[in-house]
Amino acid sequence: MGKGQWIQWRGVDEFREQMDRMLDAASQGPSLSGATNCGYVWIPLADITETAQALVVRIELPGVAPEQVLVEVADGALVVRGERPPDSDTREDADTAYHLIERAHGPFARRFPLPEDADGEGISALLREGLLTVTVPKRRPALPVRRTLVLD
């Protein structure tokens, strides 16, 4: 499967997973805590780029500390999960009446299927200024062995 095909199918799978999560949440109705049936409150935005050497996933995680994020490769996919705590100014207070709260907090998870040539052992991740950058190197294709046979 070519690079363009992989990205196209990955997008379809990701879209289906997001729709499933939204339908699960909608079937539960409004929640005072904002939590959904699947346990995830928000879905951080992501960009995926690919070079000849690596697949790079960038995920927006404003307000999330590195110790609140888990990045792993499992079952042929990159999995990123964690939790964004509520800001101190949005915690419930008897003297404060909130008129609008749009900034989500709570648990999150993203799953990105990896191509066959991904090297899960060489993965690296960096969280800086609210942007998580995960680099998954590609395995180098095996070089063909050249042998000269001497016939008897």
Question: Can you give me a brief rundown of this structure?
Answer:
The protein has a domain at 42-137: Immunoglobulin-like.
Features of the shown structure:
single chain, 152 residues, alpha+beta, Immunoglobulin-like, three-stranded antiparallel sheet, 7 strands, elongated
Q: Which strand order do you get reading across the main beta sheet?
A: 1-2-7-6
Strand content: 25-35%
Q: Distance N terminus to C terminus?
A: 42 Å
What is the CATH topology of the domain at 42-137? Immunoglobulin-like
Radius of gyration: 21 Å
Number of separate strands:
7
Given this structure, which CATH class of the domain at 42-137 is correct? Mainly Beta
Number of helices: 1
What does the main sheet amount to?
4 strands, antiparallel
How do the helices and strands follow one another from N- to C-terminus?
HEEEEEEE
Globally, the shape reads elongated
Q: Which residue ranges are poorly predicted, with pLDDT under 50 across at least 5 consecutive positions? A: 27-38
Q: Determine the mean pLDDT.
A: 78
Oligomer: single chain
Query: Which second-level CATH architecture of the domain at 42-137 applies?
Result: Sandwich
Helix amount: 10-25%
- In terms of structural class, how would the helical and strand content be classed? alpha+beta
